[in-house]
Amino acid sequence: MDISLEQTLQDGKLLRQVNAFIVSHLRDNNLNQAAIAVASATMTPLNVEVPSNKLVDLVSKGLAVEREEALRGVSPTSTVDPTGGGTVISAGYGLVPTLPTHSLDFSAVQDSKGSSKSFPKHETRHISEHKNAARCARFSPDGRFVATGSADTSIKLFEISKVKQMMMPDSNARDGPVRPVIRTFYDHLQPVNDLDFHPQATVLISGAKDHTIKILIMCASKDGSVRVWDGGSAQCVRSIIGAHGSVEATSANFTKDQRYVLSCGKDSTVKLWEVGSGRLVKQYIGAIHTQLRCQAVFNETEEFVLSVDEPNNEVVIWDALTDDKVARWPSNHIGPPRWLEHSPTEAAFVSCGNDRSVRFWKEIL
């Protein structure tokens, strides 16, 4: 076959694959009108079968290669936060993050008792302090930043590389103290309730008791229910009524594949729910949380679940598949922490407490 003809055929095949990925991505994210328009324009079947998140995964890998090439040449430039806050964040953030390659399929394992994994030891360090209770924390999708919100109405933005530098022995001896807080925001008038980073843009979203409104995809309710919403249509697509009895459900987080929701409630339980059916899949018992708006989170590989035991002021860790407790660690806070947030990319997490402190935890290598 002529080389130029073979190349043309290969290019056409690649283009059809790209079109299929785009249609599937739009369809699976409930952008149906856009999916129909692209499918019609490119003559791609609307029901084309493509693995979930395939487009995002391929783009992430390509951007990772691009970043590696940039590091060998010119350093990436910086961009200013488009919200007008003036925060300078590396241009590498704001693109699609590299997704973790490993996550658990909870439907594949029915009974895994007796095969729990060991959770690695971590070290912790006090890295900053708010003027009032530290109420919440979120990592950026690429794991390079973490933001904390406080009852003092402020939000602090930390750079993780500086936090790690701060934790190194004698880090303050050479060039003076390392300051991991790169920006503090004072935009709210009431305590900050929650934070999140945009998955692609250099935008930090916050919600507070000053009646700030933001678009939510999932919510945990004071009536003990967990509800999942379609972000495009603003319709509730799944209600798990009484997920935590009649007491408050304090947190809810999707798994990476968005098939399951991990919820935490003031009934002192952590539960894993199947979104499609509303079925209870796993229940993690042994951590008492009846007063604070505590969190339950997965680690970066979704092999472990972390939460807080209030009476003993401990961080409790379960094996996600077997639901066995595998570790209990002193929190090192004065009083139990009210919020845990795990990095999506590495073995590290943040705890926040009513003692106003923020602590960074990382695996001991």
Walk me through this protein's architecture:
The protein is an alpha+beta fold and 365 residues long. 17% of the residues lie in helices and 33% in strands. It has helices at 3-28, 32-42, 54-71, 160-167; strands spanning 78-80, 88-90, 122-129, 134-139, 145-150, 155-159, 181-185, 192-197, 204-208, 218-220, 226-229, 236-240, 249-254, 260-265, 269-274, 280-285, 297-298, 304-309, 314-319, 325-330, 337-342, 348-353, 357-363. It has a 4-stranded antiparallel β-sheet, with helices on one face. A 4-stranded antiparallel β-sheet has the order 4-5-6-7. Helix 1 runs antiparallel to helix 2 (32-42). The radius of gyration is 22 Å and the shape is globular. Mean pLDDT is 82; it is low at 74-99.
Q: Given the structure, what is the number of helices?
A: 4
- Average the pLDDT over all residues and give the rounded result: 82
Helix and strand content put the structural class at alpha+beta
Give a short account of the largest sheet.
4 strands, antiparallel
Radius of gyration, rounded? 22 Å
Spatial strand arrangement across the major sheet? 3-23-22-21
Q: How many E strands?
A: 23
Ends apart, CA distance between termini: 55 Å
Q: In percent terms, what proportion of residues is strand?
A: 25-35%
The H-and-E topology, N to C, reads as: HHHEEEEEEHEEEEEEEEEEEEEEEEE
Q: Classify the helix fraction into a percent range.
A: 10-25%
Based on CA inertia axes, which overall geometry fits? globular
- Low-confidence segments: 74-99
